[in-house]
Write a structure and sequence with these properties.
Rossmann fold; elongated
Length: 177
């Protein structure tokens, strides 16, 4: 399954972004602070895969989502820099979704990252369009469908019936001979 990291400290905005990208069939990981971003990023490896997309707010607290420092606006830029330094996340598509994208200082800093898409928080439909272009709705393969929880239960039942039928056939063969 594809993974989206939503780096956003505001619960209402996180919920809004989840609603916007719901149809993408993504496993969503909400990351509300810079500290948690660093922890999640450092955990990428065999147990945790790199995301398929990162939607990043620029204004992030270091630790407590309820306490924003004056330099919190640099938090998203720090996260973006760390993401691009790591080999496994260097090429992950990033959408900066923030109310601060029209700030000249921020714009100049984001210009250093040629592969980042910038969307103002007042444009949720544009965010939807950008995510659709980055991650088109994947048609689930038959293997994905058959490995879903509902299908796993069905296959377990069918295999149980097959085993029972085999056992009945073996008993009948002994009785007949």
């Amino acid at each position: 399954m594809r993974i989206a990291w939503i780096v956003e400290d505001n619960a209402k905005s996180l919920s809004e972004v989840k609603g916007i990208i719901r149809k993408r069939r993504l496993q969503i990981l909400g990351i509300p602070t810079q500290r948690q971003f660093v922890e999640v990023l450092s955990a990428i490896g065999p147990a945790r895969h790199a995301p398929d997309i990162v939607i990043l707010d620029l204004r992030l607290p270091w630790d407590d989502p309820s306490v924003l420092a004056k330099n919190a606006i640099a938090g998203g830029l720090k996260c973006l820099g760390l993401l691009r330094q790591e080999q496994l996340t260097r090429n992950v598509p990033v959408v900066v979704y923030s109310a601060f994208v029209h700030n000249d200082l921020i714009t100049s800093q984001l210009a250093l990252y040629r592969d980042v898409t910038i969307v103002d928080k007042t444009e949720p439909e544009r965010l939807r369009s950008v995510v659709e272009n980055i991650l088109p709705t994947a048609t689930l393969s038959i293997l994905d469908k058959l490995s879903s929880p509902g299908w796993k239960r069905a296959w377990t039942f069918v295999l149980g019936l097959a085993a029972l039928a085999g056992a009945v056939a073996a008993v009948l063969a002994l009785v007949v001979h």
